[in-house]
Amino acid sequence: MSDVVDSDELLRRLQRARACAQQEEQTWRERADDLKAGEPDPASEAVVRTLAYETVIRVLDEILTPGAHSEQG
């Protein structure tokens, strides 16, 4: 079953998702920094996860504030 939500609730959900992704990105960034010296394989996984969360944040940013972070090439 799916619930019908209004635009305000949808915006709140997107904002919560972005905050969660930002928190996870920071956690994985710290893990990557801690692991780089001694454990290359786990550090590589942490770097990949950091990049994945960065991407999620960029997508959510574009949904929440279109054009605010337009790429400059």
Estimated structural class: mainly alpha
For the secondary structure, the number of strands is: 0
User: Oligomeric state of the chains?
Assistant: single chain
Mean pLDDT: 86
Count of helix runs: 2
Poorly predicted regions: none
Computed over alpha carbons, the radius of gyration is 16 Å
Largest sheet: none
| Helix content estimate | over 70%
C-alpha geometry = elongated
Which percent range describes the beta-strand content?
Answer: under 5%
Order of helices and strands: HH
- Span of the ends, CA to CA: 44 Å
General description of the model:
Helix 1 runs antiparallel to helix 2 (40-64). The model has no long low-confidence stretch (mean pLDDT 86). The chain is an all-alpha fold. The chain is elongated, with a radius of gyration of 16 Å. It has two helices and no strands. The protein has a domain at 17-64.
Summarize this, please?
The chain has 73 residues and is mostly helical. It contains two helices and no strands. The N and C termini lie far apart (44 Å).
Q: Top keywords for this entry?
A:
73 residues; mainly alpha
